[in-house]
Amino acid sequence: MFPKPDDLFKQSFEQWEKQTADFWNAILRDPAFLKSAWQAMEMGLKSQQAVNQAVQANLETWQLPTHDSQTRILHQINRLQILADDLGQRLDDLIAALDAGKENSPQSR
Questions:
Q1: Which of helix, strand or coil describes residue 30?
Q2: What is the C-alpha to C-alpha distance for residues 3 and 10, in angstroms, rounded to an integer?
Q3: 2, exposed or middle or buried, with CB in 10 Å at 0-12, 13-18, 19+?
Q4: What is the rounded distance in angstroms from the CA atom of residue 45 to the CA atom of residue 27?
Q5: Is 75:81 a contact under the CB 8 Å cutoff?
Q6: More reliable by pLDDT, 103 or 25
Q7: CA–CA separation, 94 vs 82, rounded Å?
Q8: CA-CA distance, 51 to 43, in Å (whole number)?
Q9: How do residues 25-70 score in pLDDT, each as one tens digit?
């Protein structure tokens, strides 16, 4: 009698999964592979750093805002917004106090 298709598929998949896992475990534990992967990653990071520095230098040369200057400006704008909100609240409090003082003054009676 023939095995059921589901069982056959399950066995095939489990065998494929085991062989694939064994293959990648062997590759990923190989010191030569790890060294070459590390070197490739390091080269990629160094080239990205060089590109970022070149872009920043060009932006500064053209007097355009860099990421750092945009971040600094954004923090300053946020601080100004907080100060404006605080001033608005203090003005509201002063106006409310003045209005309350006018209501309690002898002239308003």
A1: coil
A2: 11
A3: exposed
A4: 23
A5: no
A6: 25
A7: 18
A8: 12
A9: 999 999 999 999 999 999 999 999 999 999 989 998 999 988 888 9
Burial (Cβ within 10 Å: 0-12, 13-18, ≥19) of residue 17: exposed
Cα distances from 8 to residues 16, 20, 22, in angstroms, run 12, 18, 21
Q: Residue 93: what pLDDT?
A: 94
Count Cβ neighbours within 10 Å for each residue of 36-67 and write b for 16 or more, e otherwise.
eeeeeeeeeeeeeeeeeeeeeeeeeeeeeeee
Residues 6+ apart with CB under 8 A from 68: 56
Full-model pTM = 0.49
Grade residue 72 by pLDDT with cuts at 50, 70 and 90: very high
